[in-house]
Amino acid sequence: MTRAVERLQRIDEGAEMSAPIERRARPTRGRRLAVVAAALVVAGCGSSSPSGPAQQGAAATQAAATPQSMASSQSGATVASPEGSSPPRGGTLRIVVPGDDGSAALRDMPPDFLDPDLDVSTPMSYELWRCCLVRTLLSHNGRSAAEGGARLHPDLAAALPDVSPDGLTWTFHLKPGLHYGPPLQAVEITAGDFVRGLHRFLAPANGSWLLFDYLVIQGAAEYNAGTAATISGIEAPDDHTLVFRLEEPAGDFGARLATGATGPLPPNPARPDATTGIAAGADTGYGRFLVSSGPYMLEGSESLDFSVPAAERTPVAGFAPGRIVLVRNPSWDPGSDPLRPAYADRIEISVVDSVDAAVAALDAGMADYLWPSGTQSPTVPAATFDAFRSDPTRGQAFLDPTGFVRYIMLNVAVPPVDDLHVRRAINWAIDKQALVDLSGGSAAQGVFGHLAADILEDGLLADYDPYAMPGGHGDLQKARAEMGLSRYDTDGDGLCEGQACTGLRATTRGELAPVARQVAADLGRIGIGLDVEILEQEEFFATAGRPADGVAAVVGMAISADYISATSIMADWFDSPLAIGESPDFYNLTMVGATPEQLQKWGYAVTEVPNVDARVEACLPLVGAAQFQCWAGLDQYLMENVVAWVPYADLRYASLGSPRLASYSFDALANEPALDRLAVRP
After folding, report:
1. DSSP category for residue 33
2. Which residues contact 243 (CB under 8 A, 6 or more apart)?
3. SS3 38
4. Following DSSP, what letter does each residue of 447-476 receive, concatenated?
C-alpha cells in the first residue's frame, strides 16, 4: 500500500497501524505508452510543452493556460522579517515534540529510524532528510504550492535531466567537487553512490511499499524479486554521470528521485569492497550513523569510526532517545545549494510529555517551535491553537494545507449512483463545512473541492471547485435541479424515487461515524437513503477491495501521494489496469474503468461505466509543467463529467511558534515544517 494510506490510518486512528494492508507492485502495462510528438516535447523537467490531448472538461482550457505562479489556497503564514531584511542567520533553534504516538520513533530510536532506505513510516524522518541530512539529484524548495513548492530543481545534479524523446532514458550530470560531511569529508559524492543506494533500497530484503514507485526502472522488478544480481537500468558511465533507463515513460520520474530513499550512499573507506558502503552490516538500519550530504549533520558525526563493525559502532551524540541534535556540516557548500537557506546554526529537537508541556516550554521561552509530528488531527488541539492565534504576544500560530484530501467515494455501477446527474446532485447536496466541523473544525481541515491536493498540481486548480457555495454548505436547490435531470426522478420534484433510491450500503469507520450520518442526512434531502455501516479499520479497507459487495459509497477515505505528483492519484485510482482488480490489490470502489465482463462477474446489472484510461495514459509521459497541466485538466474532467468522488476537505497542519521565531515555511514534500527555513532572533 502507499505511504499515503498508512499515514492516513495513523492520522485517523491516533496510533500506528495494527494490521498493515498489502500493496501490490505496479505491473508493467504490457505495452509502451504511445508517445506522440505533439503530446510529448521533452527538454528536461522544466518542459513547458502542451498538456497533451484535450481533457474536454469545462475548465480544461483554463488549466492548460493558467500560469504556474497562480496562488494556492495556502492558509498558513510566513513570518515576516523587518522590511528590506532577510531572516537572521545563526543561533540555536529549539524544537519540542509532544510525546504522543507520533514521537515514538524519536523516543525509542528503533534501528530503522532515520535510515533513508528503511524508515518509511516516520513523518519526522522525511523532513530531516529533505531539510538537513540527505541531498538528492533533484529536490523541492521546502515551500507551499503557492510558493513554487511543487516544482523540481537541481540539487546534487548540475541541471535538470536530459530526457530522451521516447521518455525512457534520463541522464543526470552531477555537480563536481561536493563532499560528504565528517568523518567522510575527503570523500566526493559521485554517481556510483546513487547506484549503491538504490541497490540497497530496492533489495529483496526490503519490504517497503515505496518500492512500487521505482519498479519502472529497467531490471528493478527482477532485482527486487531476487532473479537478477543488479539493476540493469541504472548506470554510472563516469563519476559525474548517472543514467536511468525506464520500462515505460514516466514523466514524474524526477519527482520520485526527490525522496530521501534515492539519495547517495557513501562508500566505506575502511571496506571499499562493501557493496552497501557505510550501511554494510546494518541491515536493520544505519540512521544512528548516517553521514550527511546536506547543510546539517548529527552532532558528533566526526567521531564515527567505520572501521568498526556496524553492530559495535556507538551512535553519535546527536542521536539519543528522545533527542536529535543537528549542527552545521562543514562540508556543505551553500553556493551549491540554493534550495536550503539553513538559517539556524544548531537545531535541537526534544520530546516532551504532552502538548501542554510543549506549550509551556514556548511560553517560558525555553522552546522556539512546537513540532506536532504526531498522529492526531488536529495536530494541535483546536482550543490551544485558537488561544495562540488570538494572543500574538504568546507567539505565532500556523495553519497549512497538507497533501491529504478526504473523500466520499461513489460506486458508479450501483443504481441510482450509476446516473451522472445523481452523482452531480450528491456533490451539490453535501454540506462540506458541516463535515469539517464534525472532524475537528478549521484547525484540522478545510473545505476542498477537487480531486488532487493543490501541491500535486502546482496550484493550478487552487481556485477551482465546480460545486462551490458560500460557506461550503452545499446547495439543495441545485442538487434537486440536477436530480430532476436524472432518470430516477420521474415526476420532476428533485427527489430520487423508487426502490433503487433506498437502502444504499455505505461504509465508514468508527471515528467518522458522525460524518457518515451527516452525509446520510444530506442525501436524504434529495431522496437517497443510505444504510451506514460502521466498520473496524481492517474490514473498512477490505470492503473497498471486494467489488462484489456492491457498496454504494465509502465515506471518509483520505488519499495523498508518495511524492509531489498527481500520478498516484490519477493512475492508481482511475487507470483500470491499476485500479480495477481483486482484494488485496484493489482499493477503488468507484468501478471507473471496469469492463462489462468484470461488472457481470461481480453481479452488477450495469453493463457500462465511465473509462478514462486514455486520458490518464496521455498524461503519464509528460514532464514538468506539461504534466501538471494535464493532471489539472483531467481533475476537472473527472469532477464534471465522471463525478465518482465527492472531495470535501483537505487535512490541515496546525503548529505553534514562539515570539523568537523569525521565519517559517511549510515543506509540501514532507508535509512537515521546513526546518532549514525556521530562523530565530538573537
Report:
1. P
2. 169, 170, 171, 172, 234, 235, 236, 237
3. coil
4. E--SSS-GGGGTTTTTT--TT--GGG---H
User: What are the helix and strand counts (H, E) for the chain?
Assistant: 19, 22
Instruction: Give the number of other Cβ atoms within 10 Å of residue 50's Cβ.
Output: 17
Of the candidates 169, 105, 102, which has an alpha carbon nearest to the alpha carbon of residue 358?
Answer: 102
State how far the alpha carbon of 466 is from the alpha carbons of 203, 425, 631, in Å: 45, 12, 16
Q: Is the pTM here over 0.85, yes or no?
A: yes
CA gap 452, 109 in Å, rounded: 34
> If you search the block for the grid coordinates 474532467, which residue do you land on?
637
Type of residue at 335? G
> Are 423 and 592 in contact, with CB atoms under 8 Å apart?
no
Judge contact between 632 and 145, C-beta under 8 A.
Answer: no
Q: Measured between alpha carbons, how far is 348 from 175 in angstroms, rounded to an integer?
A: 30
Residues 283-334: pLDDT tens digits? 999 999 999 999 999 999 999 999 999 999 988 999 999 999 999 999 999 9
Q: What is the pLDDT of residues 407-428, one digit of tens each?
A: 999 999 999 999 999 999 999 9
- Classify 255 as helix, strand or coil: helix
| The length of the chain, given as a count of residues | 682
DSSP state of 278: G
631, 456 Cβ separation under 8 angstroms: yes
CA distance 527 to 536: 28
